[in-house]
Write a structure and sequence with these properties.
489 residues, 21 helices, 10% strand, alpha+beta, 3-stranded antiparallel beta sheet, Gyrase A, domain 2
């Protein structure tokens, strides 16, 4: 066996500096890696020699890529070309659209740790509708209150956590708790930045999808992303224009849904949703999870495993799951067999909470637009310092501005809404992913809003599948739960 380093990402400014110093005429492109790896399946040469050949003949490598990726349809070859992208000066609203792409990596400027200034995006739609003054006055009001709120929350947080406050090393932590509650007052128009790692296949998809979005900011993002990458890997990025499928499908669905709602009005009293509701779960979840465990550990077919699992006594069933979890630790992923068990949740959450939940991209997350009719989430600390009335007044004035903007520039109206505003989300997870969600979000270090949501999801799910979720909890609770489950170990 021989393991060779084929490449790794470098800062692009360094690449340009090295290229200028050596006066290289050769294109420095990740396309050669894609071309070399594409040839592995049909060439007897060692892969390091294939890479050498591709570097020596870049145009030939590009021709090979175009043939293999686009003519033959082997798009996975493009995944070997990887880009690191700086996204600067984008709104929080558009960042949500960017982070919908699940097979990428993101690190975002955090409103939990950074104290934001009056930096915000003014959508072109707002300018064209003659609403700039209304928009900037409202966002300015939100930002002034955000600063005022932080100044009042900071001493409250330190006073409520005196033991932690005694150690100067915890200053940043405690200030972060104040910032994360103050941020509920600022708008989705708030300007932020993002570091993104993306392969060429997903880059092409992102360009095409953003080209189809009607928001001007989305169009600008698509155009600038294409300009930054098109010359680096032209053989892997071809189909970047919006298609009718991307442009029209969701719009047409909205039109049809509106027509159906008019014809068949929803029943009165059904509109209000609880924060957490299980809308679907795999029937006989514990039995099916047990069958999956037996399937991987035996030579039986799945039907035989289902029969066996269904016939187990409660004690035998529990013993099977205890064997599964006996050696698991807080950092371990649950076995893949648990991916056979699905749960679908209907959730109502704030923008602050959704900003964190959307990072669980292996789950299926379908989100509606923000809906002021769902109310707002008020941080408990805001109430504790006597700011509930003032907070709600800011929300009322925001609502007034939202309604005015929606009348003239409906697509841009969500920009004015705050991190406190809510939306409905349909989220499908498997039991294994729920373990991961709970470890991270039900932990004491998690932000209170998403921790509350995660706790409620876990509580509801455990009632249905107590054995499958035997050790599902936050990292901080794992040791205690493990000892309770395995008292003799």
């Amino acid at each position: 066996m021989n393991i060779l380093l084929a490449g790794y990402n470098l800062d692009y400014d360094l690449i340009k500096e090295l290229r200028d110093k050596c006066a290289s005429t050769q294109d420095l492109t990740p396309e050669t890696i894609s071309a070399a790896y594409a040839r592995i399946s049909r060439s007897p040469k060692p892969v390091n020699e294939l890479r050498s050949d591709a570097r020596a003949e870049v145009e030939k490598a590009r021709k090979s890529n175009r043939n293999i990726v686009f003519d033959m349809g082997h798009s996975s070859v493009a995944e070997h070309a990887v880009f690191n992208i700086d996204v600067i000066g984008a709104s929080r609203l558009i960042i949500e659209e960017i982070e919908k792409f699940r097979l990428c990596s993101y690190t975002e400027k955090s409103q939990r740790y950074v104290l934001f200034n009056k930096d915000f995006v003014i959508p072109e739609e707002i300018m064209q509708a003659g609403l700039k003054e209304l928009f900037t006055d409202t966002v300015g009001m939100q930002n002034d209150y955000y600063r005022e709120l932080y100044a009042k929350l900071r001493p409250h947080v330190f006073a409520e956590n005196q033991v932690l406050a005694e150690n100067p090393a915890n200053k940043s932590l405690l200030e972060g708790w104040a910032k994360e509650d103050a941020r509920y007052a600022i708008a989705l128009a708030t300007e932020t930045q993002l570091g993104m790692t993306i392969n060429a296949r997903n880059l092409e998809l992102m360009l095409r999808r953003f080209a189809a979005l009607q928001l001007v900011e989305a169009q600008e993002y698509s155009n600038k992303l294409y300009a930054a990458t098109k010359d680096i890997a032209p053989s892997l990025i071809r189909y970047t224009q919006a298609t009718d499928y991307d442009r029209l499908t969701r719009f047409n669905l909205c039109m049809q849904a509106a027509a159906l709602a008019k014809k068949y009005p929803p029943k009165a009293g059904v509109q209000k949703s609880p924060a957490v509701k299980i809308s679907f779960v795999t029937p006989d979840a514990d039995i099916r999870a047990a069958a999956a465990l037996l399937f991987s550990a035996s030579g039986f077919n799945h039907e035989q495993c289902l029969d066996l699992a269904a016939g187990l006594t409660p004690r035998e069933k529990k013993a099977l799951f205890k064997t599964t979890f006996e050696h698991i630790q807080a950092h371990d992923a649950a076995l893949r067999e648990l991916e056979n068990i699905d749960l679908q949740f209907e959730l109502v959450m704030s923008a602050s909470c959704f900003a964190q939940l959307k990072r669980h991209r292996m789950a299926t997350i379908i989100a509606q637009d923000y809906d002021p009719g769902l109310g707002v989430t008020i941080p408990p600390a805001v109430c504790a310092i006597g700011q509930k009335k003032q907070f709600l007044e800011i929300m009322r004035r925001t609502q007034d501005a939202y309604e005015q903007i929606r009348g003239k520039a409906p697509l841009a109206a969500p920009y004015i809404l705050t991190n406190a505003h809510r939306k409905r989300v349909l989220m499908k997870v498997n039991a294994r992913e729920l373990y991961h969600l709970a470890r991270l979000r039900s932990d004491e270090h998690a932000q209170w809003d998403i921790r509350k949501l995660s706790d409620e999801m876990l509580q509801a799910a455990k009632k249905i599948m107590p054995l499958t979720l035997m050790l599902a909890c936050g990292k901080d609770s794992f040791t205690a739960l493990y000892k309770k489950t395995f008292p003799h170990i």
